[in-house]
Design brief:
The chain has about 110 residues and is of the alpha+beta class. It has one domain: Glutaredoxin (3-Layer(aba) Sandwich). The chain has five helices and four strands; from the N terminus they run H-H-E-H-E-H-E-E-H.
């Protein structure tokens, strides 16, 4: 429980500049991937939000899928969720940041 709390605290205290880090521009603009765990309520909130808005996404549970865990670690790991939106990545989840990236992803 302490580790889960520390992960959440780290994600909440992350500078905004990390929320908009670049990734390789190989994904299409509307492609959304999310790296999650079962216990993360931010992960559930993000998935629920995308479902409610009709945004297609692929979720990868990093505790159940070793290949997903490797990709998660390559993205910087350290906390969940991590969203990959086209060529951008977002650490943690906020509706405002997500919408900004979604609207400005080319």
């Amino acid at each position: 429980m302490i580790i889960k709390t520390l992960v959440v605290i780290c994600m909440l205290s992350m500078p905004l500049s990390l929320a908009f880090a670049e990734t390789a521009p190989t994904k299409s603009a509307r492609s959304v991937e999310i790296y999650v765990t079962d216990w993360c309520h931010y992960c559930r909130d993000a998935q629920s939000y995308m479902k409610s808005r009709g945004i297609a996404f692929t979720a990868y549970d990093i505790e159940k899928d070793s290949a997903a865990n490797r990709r998660y670690m390559e993205l910087g790991g350290g906390g969940v969720p991590i969203l990959v939106i086209g060529s951008k990545r977002m650490y943690g989840f906020s509706k405002e940041k997500f919408e900004y990236i979604l609207k400005n992803e080319h």
